């Protein structure tokens, strides 16, 4: 039995919660200040996106809030504390990257502010922990903040090593070079220090790929709730990865990378905090269906315009009649093609839903021919058990009103067949 004392002890203590929210406020303040300093230096949001700095600012804003909300519920959640540390490093990096040139008088403002040398030094190494934690430990510890099993501790130790060692080498190596030369990259950097960032980045990608295997194994052994959380995170990651493959592509590479980050953070936040907000299975289903329909119709349109247009048109440009006709054909094919693709996807990836829909359609077709109420009741119970898989099914019959009974007094069988059918179903957790 839970007593008030045990309930009070199970709640997060005030000190960890206050520390978490303090780190959150600090990260958010530094991230917002970085945007303000960029505006002072003459940069707008578009410039931040093209310089790939908007991603770090967005990560600092979102991860800090998510980490603080988790700590408010569970102060022992390791992943939440790592998210807070990650967001703080990213916020410090972006703030320092904007403050250093402004304070050292290297912008058009030609200001002279204190702390410019320190900011230039911080901007050289504080992004390394933010990158490694986000790539390795976010995947390895998602969603409960624990390792999948004890055999994964060498991977966690390698993640700590690839985080601490390059960070220390960068911090120590760049300390003598702090100042304007470090911002303008005119100082002579030791070879080991100069390559350390890329060593940490490559190592984090390798360990992140291995952490993905751990996440897949965790999903196979997870319960219903944890599976929904992993689905949301994986859904955002799958959409984010192709958008982030070519960040330097001109002109849409930085914007696609930012969109991928938004999708990843959305999947992370919903998966941890509100995994029951939407039906992730239905969302994945609709994404696959409309993605296939878009590819098929896009290919049909391109085939019609390019091939038929060139064959019919007199010049190099396709005929306007062919373009209009192809557009009408594609529009007419949309709904039939969508229904066919939907059935194919349900049959291949959502067999339970597909079988349940077929069973209900068949029952609705037979319902028009039923006159025996007892057979109808038995079949209705069988359909409910097959489609909903409830833990309990109750069915009861209500007598017709007195005025209907007077009209059908001459036929007892007809009276039984026109009685109202009422039931109650208690769904199981699987059908929710």
State the gist of this model.
With 432 residues, the chain is mainly α. The chain is 73% helix and 3% strand.
Strand element count: 2
Task: Tell me the number of helical segments per DSSP (H or I, 4 or more residues long).
Answer: 18
Structural class: mainly alpha
Strand content: under 5%
How far the N terminus sits from the C terminus, by CA atoms, comes to 29 Å
Which whole number gives the mean pLDDT?
A: 78
Biggest sheet record: 2 strands, antiparallel
Q: What global shape is seen? A: globular
Number of domains: 3
Percent of residues in helices: over 70%
Radius of gyration: 31 Å
Please list the strands of the largest sheet in the order they lie side by side: 1-2
Oligomer: single chain
* H and E string: HHHHHHHHHHHHHHHHEHHE
Poorly predicted ranges (pLDDT <50, ≥5 residues)?
1-10, 407-432
Please write out the topology.
Layout: H1 4-10, H2 14-40, H3 45-50, H4 53-73, H5 78-103, H6 116-122, H7 127-141, H8 153-174, H9 180-184, H10 191-221, H11 224-243, H12 253-273, H13 280-312, H14 320-349, H15 351-367, H16 373-388, E1 392-398, H17 402-407, H18 412-417, E2 420-426
Antiparallel strand pairs: 1-2
Helix pairs in contact: 2-4, 2-5, 4-5, 4-12, 5-6, 5-7, 7-8, 7-10, 8-10, 11-12, 13-14, 14-15, 15-16
């Amino acid at each position: 039995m839970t007593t008030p004392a045990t309930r009070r002890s199970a709640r997060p203590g005030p000190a960890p919660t206050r520390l978490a929210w303090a780190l959150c406020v600090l990260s958010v303040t530094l991230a917002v200040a970085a945007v303000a300093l960029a505006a002072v230096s003459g940069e707008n949001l578009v410039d931040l996106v093209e310089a790939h700095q908007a991603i770090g600012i967005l990560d600092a804003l979102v991860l800090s809030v998510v980490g603080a909300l988790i700590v408010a519920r569970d102060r022992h959640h390791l992943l939440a504390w790592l998210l807070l540390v990650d967001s703080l490093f990213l916020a410090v990096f972006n703030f320092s990257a904007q403050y250093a040139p402004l304070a050292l008088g290297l912008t058009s403002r030609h200001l002279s502010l204190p702390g410019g040398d320190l900011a230039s030094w911080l901007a050289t190494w504080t992004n390394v922990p933010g990158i490694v934690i986000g790539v390795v430990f976010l995947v390895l510890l998602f969603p409960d903040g624990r390792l999948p099993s004890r055999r994964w501790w060498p991977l966690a130790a390698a993640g700590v090593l690839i985080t601490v060692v390059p960070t220390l080498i960068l911090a120590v190596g760049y300390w003598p070079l702090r100042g304007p030369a470090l911002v303008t990259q005119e100082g002579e950097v030791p070879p080991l220090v100069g390559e350390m960032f890329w060593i940490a980045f490559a190592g984090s990608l390798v360990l992140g790929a291995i952490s993905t295997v751990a996440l897949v194994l965790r999903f196979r052994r997870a319960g219903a709730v944890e599976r929904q959380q992993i689905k949301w995170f994986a859904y955002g990651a799958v959409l984010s990865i192709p958008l982030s493959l070519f960040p330097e592509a001109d002109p849409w590479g930085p914007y696609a990378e930012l969109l991928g980050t938004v999708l990843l953070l959305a999947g992370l936040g919903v998966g941890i905090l509100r995994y029951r907000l939407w039906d992730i299975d239905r969302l994945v289903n609709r994404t696959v269906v409309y993605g296939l329909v878009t590819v098929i119709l896009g290919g049909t349109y391109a085939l019609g315009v390019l091939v038929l247009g060139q064959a019919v048109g007199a010049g190099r440009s396709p005929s306007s009649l062919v373009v209009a006709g192809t557009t009408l054909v594609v529009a007419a094919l949309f709904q039939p093609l969508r229904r066919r693709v939907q059935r194919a996807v349900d049959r291949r990836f959502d067999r339970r839903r597909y079988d349940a829909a077929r069973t209900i359609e068949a029952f609705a077709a037979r319902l028009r021919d039923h006159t025996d109420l007892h057979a109808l009741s038995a079949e209705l119970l069988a359909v409910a058990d097959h489609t909903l898989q409830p833990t309990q099914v109750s069915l009861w019959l209500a007598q017709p009103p007195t005025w209907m009974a007077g009209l059908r007094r001459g036929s007892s069988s007809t009276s039984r067949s026109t009685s109202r059918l009422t039931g109650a179903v208690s769904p199981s957790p699987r059908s929710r």
